[in-house]
Amino acid sequence: MRTVDLGRTARAIVADGKGILATDETPGTLTKRFEAHRIESTPHSRRAYRELFFTTRGIAEYVGGVILQDETIRQRSSSGIPFATLLAQQGLVPGIKVDAGAKPLAGCPGEHITEGLGGLPARLDEYSAMGARFAKWRAVIVIGDGRPTSACVRANAHALARYAAICQDRGIVPIVEPEVLMDGSHTIERCEDVTAGVLQTVFNELFNQQVSLEGMLLKPNMVIAGTTCGTQASPEAVAAATLRCLRRHAPAPVPGIVFLSGGQDHLAATLHLSLINQQPDAKPWKLSFSYGRALQDEALTAWAGRQENVPAAQRAFYNRARCHASAALGQYLPDSEAAQAAV
Known about the structure:
single chain
């Protein structure tokens, strides 16, 4: 295991307020988003959409890494350059989603286990040869009546740890993503309790599987009330609860914690991240972002599938990335939105 190299890569991804652009949606998921904008989804249109992000001038100021999907890492830019090579040329670290998705967990109705460990070493070797330097694996935890069960949490934590160990053995930095979903009517207090238990179980398994904490990144949810909860916590309460939970259950050697947006819109995801970084308590890790829709949605609307709209879409993406990077430094102010968009 090349611990030093892994740690260097992990730190580079979250250096100086930088975060991660998650473009790892499957073709099926991206097709649904395209359909909402009346855009035809084809390998060509999906390639063109990804390329507008990857070729945005100056984006390496704010983004340190990009998560690709199997289709995307095999594609080339309009000028014939493999996407992973194009990203590396711009100073961005290419990564790859390697899990096979969440499937129903036997014996646990309404819960899921993420699959994909079978054949993972060979897939990682192939992706590494294509230029990938980090990987991502997502586990899904649902809060509900009697959920999550300890069996679900333990099963997903074990799978995350096995994935992370295999990644590091192949020289790939693992992003460990245990996502407690926002779906549901649970309170912020319930979310904090579940998130705490999930993180504790995940890190126990990582320790058992001898995963180097210095050579990984954590991608957790923020601590937020369920979307249908009658009482929604203030942004300040979200920030305080999220940092409190991490300080209790995320070990200091982890170089960076890159939050998922989890269904928050781009404004909420930006504000919450900034407020977390503004909390007075010590933060031994870099706290940044690994956002998909919260980075892409404004650009997708501006693009609308038209080549002539690429400059406008890139401006929207650049501005949102800049806002998120400011939030990762605790410097984002909502009042600055209009001023930054005009630059």
